[in-house]
Amino acid sequence: MKTYTFVSFVFALIFQAGPFVLATEAGALASSTKSFGGYDYPNLYDEAMPMLWASKLVYSFAKLLEAGREGSLDLGDTFPPEVLAAYKDKRLDVRDMEGGNGLPFNKVVEIVVANAENLKEIESEWEYVGNIIQKIQAAEDADQSSDDFFFETFSSIDAATQCVYGVLKDNKNKRVVVVFRGSTDLSTRDWQTNLSAQLEGMKTPKLLKDSLKGKLKKRVLVHRGFYRYIFNNKRAKGDQRYDMILNDIKPFVEQGYKIYVTGHSLGAAL
C-alpha cells in the first residue's frame, strides 16, 4: 500500500463520507507519473487526495487538542508524554521526536483509536467514523512504510486571534505539506477575516513579476482579511503566521522537499 493511501485512511478517521465517494469516482482518472523540474509528480488523483484529507483533518485535530487543553478529554494515557508537554500551554511542535523526523502517523492512529469513545463527544460524524476505524487499523498494520509520514507542528492554541495551521512531512515523496483550517465559529476571527473584503496592496512576489506588466510588477491587490491574517495580524502575539510557517518548513526545503499547501474554505483562500 502506498504512503498516500495510508495517509488518506488516517485523514478519513475524523471526517465526512463525501471524500470517499470522490475518491472512488476520481480513481478512474489516474494516469502515469509526470516529470517536471527534476521531480516525478504522481497523477492528479494521487496528488489531490492526500491534500483533500489533510484539509479535513485539520478541523478535528484542532478540536481534539482544544478538548485536551480544556480538560474535557483526558489524553494522559494515550498521548506520548513529550507530546502532552508540548501542547498544554503552547503550540504543538514535535519536530525533534523520532530523531528529528517528528511524530509518526502510525502513532497518531494509535492516539485517535485509543480516544475513540472520547471523540464521540466532540465529533458529529462519529457514526461514519466508527465504520472507518477498522480500515485504518488494517492499513496501519499492513503498511510498513507508514513511518515515512510525520506530523511536525500544529498551531491552534491562539485560534481566537490567529489562523490555525499544521505542517506534515512525507519522507517517501519528499514533500512538506502546510494545511490551513477553514472557518469555524464566532469565537475566532475567521468570519471577520472573510468579511474584510476590501483590497489591500501587497508587494508582488518574485515568481509573478516576469508574467505581469506595468504597476503590477511592483504591487498587486489582494483580499485585505486574508492578507492580514497571514502577513499583518495586529492582534498576533509574537511572530506573524507567515514567519512561523517559513521557520517550520525551512529545514525541509533546504533538504530538497517540495512544498504543498492545502485547505478548505478560508483555509483554501489562505
Write up what this structure looks like.
The protein is α+β, with helices and mostly antiparallel strands. The chain contains 13 helices and ten strands. Strands 3, 4, 5, 6, 7 and 10 form a six-stranded mixed β-sheet that branches. The protein has a two-stranded antiparallel sheet with strand order 1-2. Strands 8-9 form a two-stranded antiparallel ribbon. α1 packs antiparallel against α8 (126-142).
Topology:
Elements: H1 3-12, H2 18-26, E1 34-36, E2 39-41, H3 44-70, H4 81-87, E3 92-93, H5 97-100, E4 103-104, H6 105-114, H7 116-119, H8 126-142, E5 149-155, E6 165-170, E7 175-180, H9 190-195, E8 199-203, H10 206-209, E9 219-223, H11 224-230, H12 241-254, E10 258-263, H13 266-269
Parallel strand pairs: 7-10
Antiparallel strand pairs: 1-2, 3-5, 4-5, 5-6, 6-7, 8-9
Helix pairs in contact: 1-3, 1-8
